[in-house]
Amino acid sequence: MLYKYEFCTRLCYSSTMFKGVYNLEELQEKRFYIKEIADLTGLSEQLIRKWENRYHIVQPERLDNGYRVYTFDDLLTLKELKKFRDQGKSMKLAIQATVAKQGTTGLIDKLNQVEKSPNVEKMVEKGTVYDEDGLMFLLRQSHYQYGLDLFLQNTVRPFLEEVGDLWEKGEWDESQETVSSLVVKDFLTQVSRNFNFNLKAPHALGFCLPDELHEIPLQILLLQMKMKGWRTTRIGASPKFSTIERLIKYMQPQKVLFSASTVIPFQQNEYLLEKLDQLAKKYAHILFHIGGEGIWDYTKVVKPTYMHVSFSVEDITTSTE
């Protein structure tokens, strides 16, 4: 990554520890003691340990003598976090900003990690044998037991991850993945329809991108926004670009959300991100956000100017410009 090369260059030329000694490849292999990390980042050893234990931001190796040793990537992570904390960002927003700079989502995953519901494994068993009623029962049970917010985090997301892993490993075929996903989608649709909201609440309009068929991440996001007092509208999978334009013009929401779970939309239309960005420019009074796993890889190459690349419901609901 470019930022990693630039940071390495600054280290090599500005630090007495590295001056004229290490190149980028050698720094990648080097291990640092906590005192070295503290000196290079400006963080105290106590604060590094606190971030390490509370947020699991870095996971240093332990030598036989008990000393911690950190990688060069750990150094970069802590350096970036300190910069964003110094700018006044909350710890969560600082982690999200670091993710954007590094182009990885691992820190967010750790930050948002919750214990998986025991119903997830039972749901996998039901999905394996196409037991739709059994799946629906377990979803209802977990929803009732945990409440919507925790249910989305400890049941829905882990189950979808399990389904994806099973499909990728060839242990499930496409039909099992499709049936299980449809049951989850239908259940979340029911929950959304039964959700009471204020007609005067701010309005968020959510779209999957053209050629994007994965709707559930957008469903989850919009449900989370409803819990924060928003009125939401979800447009189905793979809408035409002209449909997106017309609905934004007609509905005039406070926020527009684009979901890119895969890179397929950008592979199908290499100018799609540019067109969406121009749409955001045209409706400058509306806040536009784009997110999802597909956008992380794509925005390493091309970054939007008028849209926010967003990480979480907190990032979306707190942004005002």
UniProtKB/TrEMBL annotation:
Taxonomy, superkingdom: Bacteria
Single GO MF descriptor: DNA-binding transcription factor activity
Matches recorded under Gene3D superfamilies: 1.10.1660.10, Cobalamin-binding domain, Methionine synthase domain
InterPro entries in alphabetical order: Cobalamin-bd_sf, DNA-bd_dom_put_sf, MerR-type_HTH_dom, MerR_fam, Meth_synthase_dom
HTH merR-type domain span: 31-100
A Pfam match: MerR_1
Swiss-Prot/TrEMBL keywords: DNA-binding, Repressor, Transcription, Transcription regulation
Descriptive protein name: MerR family transcriptional regulator
Organism in which the protein naturally occurs: Peribacillus cavernae
